[in-house]
Amino acid sequence: MNNFEIRWAKENDRPAIINTIREVYNGEEEFAKMAEFFTSPLHPNGGPETTLIAVDKSNGNVAAVEITASMFWMYEGIPLKTQVLLLTGTHPSYRGCNAMNLIHDKNNEWLMENDFDISFVDGIPWYYRRLGYQPLELLPDLTAYDRFSLPRGEEKIKNYIFRPFEEKDIPLTLELLRHKAEDMLYSFTYDEKWLRLFALDYAEGIPENSDLSTVVCNLEGDPVGVILAYTKQCDGKMYMLDYVLKPGISHLDATPAVLEFLAQEGDRQMGVTGGCKQIVLPYDVNTREVLGDCLSNIEYVNKRQCKIVDISKFIKKIAPVLEKRIAQSPICGYTRTVGIQLFGHKKGININLTEGRITDVVWRDVDFINDALDIQIPYEKFIRLLFGVESIDEMRQMHREVNSYNGGRLENEFRLLLKILFPKKMSYIMHSC
Predict the structure, then answer these.
(1) Which of 9, 52, 161, 353 could link 13 by a cystine bridge, Cβ 3.0 to 4.6 Å?
(2) How far apart are CA 224 and CA 162, in angstroms?
(3) Are 164 and 215 in contact (CB under 8 A)?
(4) Which residues contact 205 (CB under 8 A, 6 or more apart)?
(5) pTM of the entire structure?
């Protein structure tokens, strides 16, 4: 029997939300501090009003919490309205009472009503998979470099000035970060609010995280790059959130200087625990090439999962990019209604193409026996196509379920169409808060 009221929180619910999250995570104060931060004015788009709670009607207790925030991602220039689940959990006293499922149902309705494109969570894969989320590699794995295997930077650091990040640096940093994202399929969209969070107020109130956002200048004092980083006092690692240099600045020259600066700062901040032992860098093709033979290990970041709220609306939204791909391909002017049958959902998608333009996308029920469509593909594989993490040719080699309605293989016309519409391409979704 449903004894819960599912509603968006109010300011006076904050203490109960924070306490519930504390109990969810076995009394860990770090998570309580995170809940306090996510529901405060310090967070760009968080707050009580973006937090769903299940309230026990009999006593008013907060039984379960889902703290969310909205942000925008970009799909090759097209903004996508995205929700991120920041913290979720059910109070130990209410586990097994269906409270969180009721919250997810309410949230799904809200996502549809408010035209969201994507819902995103960084959490337990198998739990969220049953709610429609698919594990997706939207950020290349971080690389942890052994400090003493890095190129010597003692001489190169003398060629640069390092100063703390300031408000005046926001416009240049936004320009550099947007330029870096241009080659990515999906990317996080920095704006002034989000950059201020990550560069000036990151992890406010969480003592073991220390800000180290820095502007790299030449000896004349002109900015040539930006470092967004923080230290975790507990593990001797310096984590770089992002690192960008202006076009024309040599990574071969600047990167050793930047790493030497980070190592020295790490020693200063973490001297009590033995100093900086590793520097963990996000993916950057230039930096990875420069440090290619350094001793390193991979820190996997494969817990990130996404759900497309409405597939037909999503394809319509990104149609300008898809049409551009067709126009620049061997199938320019393609005309046909293509049916894609999704295993596991008893659903399919009809994409109507007229002279290379997408005129309609229809999400429809499919009778697998009497109503087979042109292309058969498991639902989770189609999502991987949409997110560019796997190519149709890779899928064909590994999965016999990816085929046309001839029982054997995917006809070349459809293979070519899917390859052009949904190419494999790297994404860079760095932040999840």
Answers:
(1) 9
(2) 10
(3) yes
(4) 33, 36, 37
(5) 0.88
For domain 4-134, the CATH architecture is: 3-Layer(aba) Sandwich (3.40)
Helix 14-24 crosses helix 29-38 at what angle (to 10 degrees)? 150
CATH of region 142-299: 3.40.630.30
Q: Tokens representing 268?
A: 């200063």
CATH code for residues 310-421: 3.30.1050.10
Query: Nearest to residue 44, comparing CAs of 15, 72, 18, 17?
Result: 72
Separation CA 107–CA 410 (nearest Å): 37
pLDDT in tens, the chain (433 residues): 468 999 999 999 999 999 999 999 998 888 998 899 899 888 888 888 999 999 999 999 999 999 999 999 999 999 999 999 999 999 999 998 999 999 999 999 999 999 999 999 988 777 888 888 998 888 777 888 998 888 888 889 999 999 999 999 999 999 999 888 888 999 988 888 888 887 876 544 444 445 678 999 999 999 999 998 766 655 788 888 888 999 999 999 999 999 999 888 888 877 756 788 888 888 787 888 888 888 888 776 667 899 999 999 999 999 999 999 999 999 999 999 999 988 877 889 999 999 999 999 999 888 766 777 888 899 999 999 999 999 999 988 877 788 887 656 788 999 999 999 999 999 988 766 6
Q: How far is it, in rounded angstroms, from Cα 145 to Cα 164? A: 24
Query: In this structure, what token pair is assigned to residue 410?
Result: 């995917």
Are the C-beta atoms of 198 and 241 separated by less than 8 Å?
yes
Domain regions of the chain by residue span: 4-134, 142-299, 310-421
